[in-house]
Amino acid sequence: MNRHAFGRRVPRRGQTSKAFHARSVVWSNPRYLASRVFSAGNTGPVWTILHYLKYGLPFKLGLKRASCNGGDVKRINLLAVEHCTNRCRQCSTSSPFAAKRTYAAAAFVPWLDLMMREGIKFGHISITGGEPFLHPDLPGFIDDLQARYPKKQTGLTTNFFWANEEKIRYYAPKLKSLSKMLISKYPNTVAKIGGEQRFGSLVELLRTLCPQIEITIADGSHLIEWQLHPDERSPKAHCCTSDCYVLRADGKISHCAVGVGLEHRPEFRQIAQESKDALYDLGRGTSGFLSWVNKYPFDLCFHCTLWRGVRTPWKSESPM
Ligand code: SF4
Ligand code: SF4
C-alpha cells in the first residue's frame, strides 16, 4: 500500500479528454487546482515549498487537518493481505518484511460491527495490504463486506501487478460491489506490464468494463522517506499518512500506515512496543477511541521522520 503518493484524477468513462480538462481547470474548483499544483513537482524546492504550505504552515498555525468528510474517520483500511508482490523501499506498511498471511472478511466483522454499534462514523471501507490481489478469494471478500455493510463504500488499493487483458476480463464481473480502486503506479509494474501506454490502456479497459468503480492512479515514481530514531524529536508539520487507519484482523487499528507493520522490522520493534498510540486495541472497547483519533502528533511521531515529506525515487529493497 502506498499511502505516500497523491491521487491523480483521470477522465471518467465517456468523458472526452477535452471536456475533462475544460471541467478540471476552472477557477471555481480551488481544491482541485491546489491538488494539481501540489503534484507538479516531485522533489526539490517546488515540492519543499508546496509541502510546507500544505503540511508545515497549518501545523505551525495550530490548524487541524480536515480529512474525514464529516465522519469521525474518513476510511477504515482492512489489512486483508500482509505480504506483497513488490519490495518497495520506504513501504509504509513494512509489507516486504511481512509473512504471507491473508484474512477473510469475517475476521474484521467483529471490529467493524463494534465501531458501528458505538456510533463511530466512517463512510468508506478499503481493502488493503500488502497487495489485496494476492488474496485467495478477493471477490468473495468484497461481496461479504458489501452484504454486511451495504451503506458503506467499498474500495481497494492495488499495485496492478496482476493486470493483463485476460485477468481484467476475469475480475471485472466479480468486482461489481466495488466502488473505488486506487492503483499505485510503480516503475517496476509499468515495465512488467509493457510500458506507459500499455499500462494506460489496461486501466482504460478496466474502467470500461467496471464503470461503477472510481479508479484513481497514484504516482509511485517517488515515495516519502521514513526512518524511526530512538531519541525524541518534535515533528514540525502535519503528516500525510497520520489519518490512514489500518485495521488488523486481531482488532488492533493503527493511526497511520507506518504503525501497522512495525513488528516485522526488528530494528524498530522496541520503539513500536514502547508506543502507546501507534495501535489502538479495539479488543478493549472504544472508550477513548475518538480522542486517540484526534491526536497528532502522537508518541510514535516523535521517533519518526515521515512528517518531513522528503520524496525519494522509487527503489526495490534488496531480496531477503
Ligand atoms: S506495492 Fe510497495 S508500497 Fe505498496 S504494499 Fe507493496 S511493497 Fe508496500
Ligand atoms: S510521523 Fe507520525 S503519523 Fe506520520 S508516519 Fe510517522 S508515526 Fe505515522
How is this fold's topology laid out?
Layout: E1 7-8, H1 17-24, H2 30-38, H3 44-60, E2 75-79, H4 109-117, E3 124-128, H5 138-148, E4 153-158, H6 165-171, E5 180-185, H7 187-193, H8 196-209, E6 214-219, E7 222-224, E8 245-247, E9 252-254, H9 269-274, E10 279-281, H10 289-293, E11 311-313
Parallel strand pairs: 2-3, 2-8, 3-4, 4-5, 5-6
Antiparallel strand pairs: 1-6, 7-11, 8-9, 9-10
The structure holds iron/sulfur cluster (2 copies).
Shape: globular
SS strand fraction: 5-15%
Order of strands, widest sheet: 1-6-5-4-3-2-8-9-10
- The CATH class turns out to be Alpha Beta
CA distance, first residue to last residue: 19 Å
Helix content, binned percent: 25-40%
- How is the main sheet built? 9 strands, mixed
Q: For the residues shown, what is the average pLDDT?
A: 88
Secondary-structure-based class equals alpha/beta
> CATH architecture, please?
Alpha-Beta Barrel
Quote the CATH topology. TIM Barrel
Sketch the topology as an H/E string, one letter per element: EHHHEHEHEHEHHEEEEHEHE
Radius of gyration, rounded?
19 Å
β-strand number: 11
List the ligand species.
Answer: iron/sulfur cluster
Overall tally of structural domains: 1
Which regions are unreliable across 5 or more consecutive residues at pLDDT < 50? Answer: 2-38
How many helices does DSSP assign? 10
Task: Tell me about this structure.
The protein is an alpha/beta fold and 320 residues long. The chain has a single domain (7-313), classed as Alpha-Beta Barrel (TIM Barrel), CATH 3.20.20. The chain has 10 helices and 11 strands. The strands form 2 sheets. Strands 1-6-5-4-3-2-8-9-10 form a 9-stranded mixed beta sheet. Strands 7-11 form a two-stranded antiparallel ribbon. β2 (75-79), α4 (109-117) and β3 (124-128) form a beta-alpha-beta unit. The protein is globular, with a radius of gyration of 19 Å. It starts with 6 loop residues before the first strand and ends in a 7-residue tail after the last strand. It binds iron/sulfur cluster (SF4) (2 copies). One iron/sulfur cluster is lined by residues 1-2, 84, 86-88, 91, 93, 95-96, 129-131, 159, 184.
